[in-house]
Each structure stands twice: as structure tokens, then as C-alpha cells.
Amino acid sequence: MHISNKYLIEGIVFVSYILFAMAWVGGTASMGNIMSAMSVNSLADASFISGAVTLAKILGTFIAALLAIKLGLKNALLLSMVLIAVGVLTPLSPNYYLLLLSRFIMGLGGALMIVYFNPVVMRCFTPKERPVVNGLNAVAFNIGTAIILYLMSDINAVTGGWRSSLMAFSLASLLLGVIWMLVKFEHQQTDPGQDADPKQQDSYNYRHALRDKFNWIYSLTYAGLLSFYVCLFTFYPRAGISQSALVITFGILGTLAGIIYSLKFPRRLPVIRWSGLVMVITIIGLTFSPSITIKTVCAMVLGFVIFFPITALVSLPQELPQMTSEKITIVFSLFWSISYLLTTFVLWLFGKLVDINQGDFSQAFILITLVSSSFFIGSFFLPEPAKAKPTQG
Fold first, then answer.
1. Rounded to 5 degrees, what angle do the CA atoms 359, 49, 71 make?
2. By percentage, how much of the chain surpasses pLDDT 90?
3. What value does the mean pLDDT of the chain take?
4. Got the DSSP string for 7-43?
5. What confidence tens digit (pLDDT) does each residue in 130-155 have?
6. Model pTM score
7. Of 166, 366, 211, whose CA–CA distance to 284 is shortest?
């Protein structure tokens, strides 16, 4: 028995990433219980967990393309699902070090999977179908996060506690991995106007990708948005700005609107550019306004405009001339790795500024606002695939 239906293939990957988000965020939400069970009270030890997560994201996304080349896309995705399932050790860890290892391995699996979304889309779906699938993939983590934020206590009540819940998420991931072994990819769905030259694609590797100006502009454009998004949930609550939960909810709405928009309008840069501008304005309102009402409204709008352009952003490289599933894997491997690396540095600098100023967030908030503008600025340097399409033939 084989699974070759493209919707089933996409559904397995989509649900797998939702389960990863649930296991990941659920573990974070239960970290107090976990650390208490191990009698670990050191904030320094807790910070190592965040460090392990960061390292897993950078390392996993960077090696994702290499693993796909060596193992094949199907086996590389199977590996990511197995690594995610290792999260079952998180609630069972007898000591801090095994906990640290389980979180690192699970994070590694999630980092691999986020890269593999794009070659799956390229292989299975036609160019007209890709914006919808890209948008759904972009909202997968938010759906998992929202389930945990709003339903974790109910899930715990059903399963019997946080340990059982975390184990259930991981075992469900493992079950999907078993089902994934039945998948058989059909031939890649290509755009007749954008047939790729096989000889050119065979020569595209990490060395060429690192020299490709597009990959750097593309990564730097997104890095500002990612830096702010991570900072929003890491530091903003500590600064007394508690509207971050609204960003998740309205982010889902923004993603759905972005899918509809991208289906109707083929140009990608306008939605990236103007969303980036509104994002900077609403970040200023959320961060610096003394009014709770303004902060709340800005948080809702911000959540919407952060995710509204994501479908267009992810679709952009897929629609460039001479793009294949093999090349897109390398492109997104570098995209995520560079973005996470820069985000790590920005968050370290943010925390450093807060420390230097004895707990005052003012300078750090100015920094993250300026960094977030890269999404708007980068839109002036990215290519517009809608302009390139007529020249192909």
C-alpha cells in the first residue's frame, strides 16, 4: 500500500508540524512543573534549555538540505518526524541533562521539517495551488500554539495531567512517522513556463547558494520580522506588555486573508512592502504608547500584518525562474538558518541593553523596532516573480 495523494501527503506534514508546536509549546508551558519535579531552580540551567533550542534551530535548518540530498526528501522528512517524537522523553526525563537533550533533539526535528515544507509543495502542487498550501503551512505552528494556549488545561484534564499530554503529542508524531513510510512521491509539478535546466540545478549547492545575493536579501528581509516575533514572546511580557497573546489569534486571521489575497493578486512585493510598513507603525504603538487601548488595537493589527504577507513571502522563491524542489530546499535551508542566527544575535543584544541600563527596556525597544524595519526595507531589493514570468518560455 502506498500513499501518493498530494493532499494526504501535505496533510501528514501539516499535522506533524502542528503536533510539534503542541509538544514544543506544551513543554515550555509545563517547564515550571518539569523543573520542579527535578528540583531544579536555577535560572541559569533554565536558560541552557533556550540555548539548546536556538542551537537546534540554527544547526537543523542549515543541514536540512544536505540531509535531503543524502537521504532523499521522503527519508529526511521521516527523520524529522522521528526526532520530534523524541520529545516523549521530556516528561519522562529523570534528570536535567536528559531533559536538555530531548528538547534539543525535538527542536532539531522541527527545524528540519520547516525547511522541508517547501520542497513538498514544489513536488506535489502546481504553481496555482501553491499559495494556498504555503499559507496553510505558515499557520501550522500558530494553530498548535493556539491549541496549547487555550486548551492545555482541558487536554490535561482528559489525559490525566501534563506528563500524559506531552507523551500523547509525541506518540502521535511517531504514529504519523509510521504512516509517512507509506508515502510515494509522484513526479514534481512544474510550471510549463518555468522549466528548469537539469544541468544548472545539479550544480547548485551550498557554495553557490552562499554566493547568491538573493538568498542573503531574502533572509535579511525576514530576519527583522522573526527577531521581533521571538522578542515579543520572550521579553515583552517581562516589560509589562501583555498583549502578545492577541498577536497569535489575529495572526491566524492574517494568514487566511493572505492566502486569499495571494490567489487573487500575483504580485508578491506590494503586500510584503506595505505590510512591513504597517508592522513598524504598530510595533511603535504597541511598544511606546502609554494607552492600553492603543496597545491592544496595535497588537491585533500587528498580529494580522505579521502573517498577512507570509504566503507571498514563501511563494516568492518558488515562483522564480529555474526553481526546482532540490534548489528550493537549499534556498530555505539557508533562509531559516541565517534568519535564526541573526535573531539569536539580536535577542542577545536586546538582553544586553536591558542589563546595561539596569532593567530599563527603552534602548532595547528602539533596537528591536529598527531591526523589524528590515521587512519593509528588504522589499525594495527582492525580485518580483510576477515580472519574471512573461519572459519565460
1. 135
2. 59
3. 87
4. HHHHHHHHHHHHHHHHHHHHHHHTHHHHHHHTT---H
5. 999 999 998 898 889 889 888 889 99
6. 0.85
7. 366
